[in-house]
């Protein structure tokens, strides 16, 4: 399927480009953005960091607000930011900001009406990387990162498909969605009421059984309004107790849940991934 | 008049805060944002860079998209970003994006109905700096910068009030508004048809007669869609021919009019101002 370029701008001596395309995974149109660093070309393919955004976001939030480009350009890392769900009039939706369009939770839905389009896991793990490899000068090296719902996505996808990614990082991830209101609402809708089906999408559950060697960096603001009720980083720290690979969760004093927080530490995350993407 | 805090977030180890307040200059409510670097306190007041935004912008665009905070924190420079006009149901407006609310052009309007509220020159030059000095740990040292309509504002205000500012910079300024559609529409409405009243707000006119010693840095993308019709940097270069102080206008190949362009070069601008704000 061809990519349709919908916007482009030179930035940090590289390029930011937005595309839409027909997705076989989600059975409809998807949008993504890519940052290509200045050194990316056919003779010099670059590694890719996949960035998964949070609730209500599109492909644009990270690219406009994260202040990531100068460091990504310096390190020679491409960044791909997909939309957070399928969209459109024929795509199931909900009145809440935390379910439906803008809130795909990076799962493959099994329940009607969601299962017709909400196959975000397949899109992120399989279809999108194939599309990126076929259309841009990128290498096989991939890492994954995200924020909030996207932090949940980065952790669960990175752990479950550890052979596909070199490293994982997250800002303010939903660390134990089986036991928080956002996660329970989404999993009930997308996966049904059988909680045995939820475990494969819970970062704390997956991490406690993780055998892979996969470096993980997490930043969490201690003034985040969602910290205690929705994010539950302590559960993730406990689940990481037996890991053999590097795991660091940094509580950042004074910071909240916003892109002001992300923009403060994104350079650290890019340098973290850069160690493993060479 | 008291300031009302409407939002705050820690960023780059400093603070981003938004305030609204009753403005005597514009005879109504105004909103501004401030970035305070981590070293700002009563024992260590910091210099201020005033940032004037372009058409359609509010106080938020620069703060969310410019990627300025890490460098401003490092240099110890506060940044103040006012809204681009008065706003509200009782404030005159226009159906176009280039006149009325969001398009104050940093002038003191003399024509009805605009003159009731559109006194943005007084607000930027007088009221806002007094408010900042009274409420935040800042020194007397000020510089001014802006984008597009705000580049026009930074140049005209900086040149006309050269004793108030240490340095000026601009991205993609409207350099000769008397002779471009955006400027002519705004000046006709705000200042009337007598073009002798327009000269005091035209950067090229002012610069050609400038006796002050005032360093100026300008960046302009050569793929800017507004370059030939609206921005006219060549007129400004010609007007700068007899300046005795540093003047540099850099044509940046491949860049457009967006915040992707601004975010690429904002660190250069902050370091430029930093030389004069010590």
UniProtKB/TrEMBL annotation, chains A, B:
Keywords: Hydrolase, Serine esterase. GO terms for molecular function: carboxylic ester hydrolase activity; S-formylglutathione hydrolase activity. The keyword Hydrolase applies. It catalyses: S-formylglutathione + H2O = formate + glutathione + H(+). The keyword rRNA-binding does not apply. It comes from the Bacteria. Belongs to the esterase D family. This is S-formylglutathione hydrolase. The lineage of its organism: Bacteria, Pseudomonadati, Pseudomonadota, Gammaproteobacteria, Alteromonadales.
């Amino acid at each position: 399927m061809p990519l349709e370029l919908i916007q482009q701008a030179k930035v940090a001596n590289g390029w930011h480009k937005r595309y839409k395309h027909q997705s076989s995974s989600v059975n409809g149109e998807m949008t993504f953005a890519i940052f290509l660093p200045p050194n990316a070309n056919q003779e010099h393919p670059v590694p890719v960091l996949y960035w998964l955004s949070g609730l209500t976001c599109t492909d644009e939030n990270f690219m406009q607000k994260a202040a990531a480009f100068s460091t990504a350009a310096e390190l020679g890392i491409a960044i791909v930011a997909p939309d957070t769900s399928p969209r459109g009039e024929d795509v199931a939706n909900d009145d809440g900001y935390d379910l439906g369009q803008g809130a795909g939770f990076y799962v493959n839905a099994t329940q009607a009406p969601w299962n017709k389009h909400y196959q975000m896991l397949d899109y992120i793990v399989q279809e999108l990387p194939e599309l990126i490899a076929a259309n841009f000068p990128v290498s096989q090296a991939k890492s994954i990162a995200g924020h909030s719902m996207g932090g949940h996505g980065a952790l669960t996808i990175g752990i479950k498909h550890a052979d596909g990614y070199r490293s994982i990082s997250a800002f303010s991830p939903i660390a134990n969605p089986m036991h928080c209101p956002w996660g329970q609402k989404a999993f009930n809708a997308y996966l049904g009421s059988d909680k045995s089906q939820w475990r494969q999408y819970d970062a704390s559950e997956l991490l406690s059984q993780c055998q892979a060697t996969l470096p993980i960096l997490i930043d969490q603001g201690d003034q985040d309004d969602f910290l205690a009720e929705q994010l539950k980083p302590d559960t993730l720290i406990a689940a990481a107790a037996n890991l053999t690979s590097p795991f660091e969760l940094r509580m950042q004093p004074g910071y909240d849940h916003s892109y002001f927080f992300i923009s403060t530490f994104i350079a650290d995350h890019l340098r973290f991934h850069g160690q493993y993407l060479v």
